[in-house]
Design goal:
Helices cover 7% and strands 43% of the residues. By secondary structure, it is mostly beta strands. Bound molecules: CU-O-CU linkage and copper (II) ion (2 copies). One copper (II) ion (CU) binds next to strand 6.
């Protein structure tokens, strides 16, 4: 077989997995373009989540699941965002080490995109992996009603690794909706829940479908990209009776893939698994734990395809991202305490009930506007390493996220940690965690809990790197 023919077949296998298998299964459509240029329109869009009902959602390009954007490490990507909503918005590229002007935070990095306006985001992702995008304005509603999508950055070309080593590459976007039986929305936020774990949804979907069965090519290596784009919930996933390997956490490949037992992801978090699929007709079940009990979450069914990678191929190995290694010897340590300070002030000046429940170092986020930007939680010197000592003084989980950098989780008071890079760390109740990173990206970077109601009721701030 000539090189050309082999390359053609491999390319075919890869595309085949993304496209032809999507017939009746909920694999999200990949929006692919050679020059990495996209248009995303935010608009009101009815979509079908509960079969035979319509949900009055908000959708990217009028659809849910949203288009999966695909970029390439080290190559510019351009996304024109058109706001057809009746409210302002911005889009944030979660996890991308980006220029501050493209970070998509209103007032801090750009002016909001007003209704009828558009904004062109252009950036060059330095890292490959599973990322996602979402508005950073009125997030309870905008994210809660469907404006969440995945951004997959393929690895730069190298002789070590090719995405074609996987016979399928499957994005799995997890979201739990607040729905009545007729498809209409229930309240997305209830104050007494916002003051605790957040208001949970009641209709769980993966790529927009409840408990889907997804066809995968038999007898070959596949890559599963789990992304928790929910506003609230933690998912603890495991694979039932079938070997799997944890390859990447929040877009960052592990130095060594780890045999997978189970893994918890809070709102905003991702992980990639590598699995060798069984023979045609056999299935793999992924389960989600609620407390100690695990429930069926998703089924992968092996099917015959024209070409799959040979069964005896070694497990593909993802190349590491080019992240700066924190210099712990010279690091400065800063402490951050996350607390609950229940206070329901009856109303704001517009007469709307206002709630502040959560604080970081005793400060609740006050919100910001064009001429009022609160002081940063900390000012960091460009180029220096910092250790953040994070203390969760509450009886709830908090997935704590920092924009603009990837940080290394060093240790925890609750579990043994093999240090790993991430953009969001899930803090258990009363857990204390140490993280470290090089402050190499100048800008004002949001630093918040990704439980959207927590960030909206105080658990948010920013750091300034200069
Ligand atoms: Cu997904 Cu401010 O974050
Ligand atoms: Cu982010
Ligand atoms: Cu939180």
């Amino acid at each position: 077989m000539s090189i050309n023919r082999r390359m053609f077949l491999q390319g075919g296998a890869f595309l085949g997995a993304g496209l032809s298998l999507s017939g009746c299964t909920p694999i999200i459509k990949l929006t692919q373009s050679a020059d990495y240029e996209y248009t995303l329109t935010l608009e009101a869009a009815p979509f079908e989540l509960i079969p035979n009902t319509q949900t009055p959602g908000l959708g990217f390009n009028g659809q849910y699941p949203s288009p999966v954007l695909r970029g390439k490490q080290g190559r510019p990507i351009t996304i024109t965002v058109v706001n057809k909503l009746d409210q302002p918005t911005t889009i944030h590229w979660h996890g991308i080490r980006i220029d501050i002007a493209m970070d998509g935070v209103p007032f801090l990095s750009q002016m909001p995109i007003m209704p009828g306006q558009s904004f062109v985001y252009k950036f060059t992702p330095p890292d490959a992996g599973t990322f996602w995008y979402h508005p950073h304005v009125n997030s309870v509603e905008q994210l809660g009603k469907g404006l969440v999508g995945l951004l997959i950055v393929d690895e730069a070309d190298s002789s070590e690794f090719s995405p074609n080593e996987f016979s399928a590459d499957i994005p799995l976007m997890i979201k739990n909706w607040h729905l009545n039986d007729d498809g209409s929305f229930k309240p997305l936020s209830i104050p007494r829940y916002a003051a605790r774990m957040g208001t949970p949804g009641n209709y769980e979907t993966i790529n927009g479908v409840n408990k889907p069965t997804i066809d995968v090519p038999a007898n070959s290596w596949i890559r599963l990209r789990f992304a928790n784009v929910d506003n609230t919930l933690v998912y603890t996933l495991r694979v039932k009776d079938h070997p799997a390997f944890l390859a990447s956490i929040d877009a960052n490949p592990l130095p060594e893939p780890k045999p997978f037992k189970q893994h918890a992801i809070g709102a905003g978090m991702r992980f990639d698994l590598i699995i060798k699929t069984p023979s045609v007709g056999e299935s793999i079940v992924v389960e989600n734990g609620k407390g100690r009990i695990f429930f069926e979450f998703l089924t992968l069914k092996s099917v015959a395809t024209k070409s799959t990678t040979p069964t005896n191929a070694p497990m593909p190995r993802l190349p590491l991202n080019p992240l700066p290694e924190p210099d712990l010897d010279t690091a400065e340590t800063l402490k951050f305490v996350f607390e609950w300070e229940g206070a329901i002030t009856p109303a704001d000046d517009q007469g709307k009930a206002k709630h502040k429940f959560w604080t970081i170092n005793r400060r609740a986020w006050e919100g910001m506007s064009h001429n009022k930007i609160p002081a940063p939680l900390a000012k960091l010197t460009l180029g220096k390493t910092y250790i953040f000592d994070l203390k969760n003084n509450t009886p709830h989980h908090h997935p704590i996220h920092i924009h603009g950098v990837m940080f290394k989780v060093l240790k925890s008071t609750k579990k043994k940690i093999d240090p790993f890079f991430t953009d969001t760390v899930l803090m258990e109740k009363n857990e204390r965690v140490k993280i470290a990173f090089v402050a190499d990206n100048p800008g004002r970077w949001m630093y918040h809990c990704h439980v959207i109601e927590h960030m909206k009721t105080g658990l948010m701030g920013y750091i300034e790197i200069s």
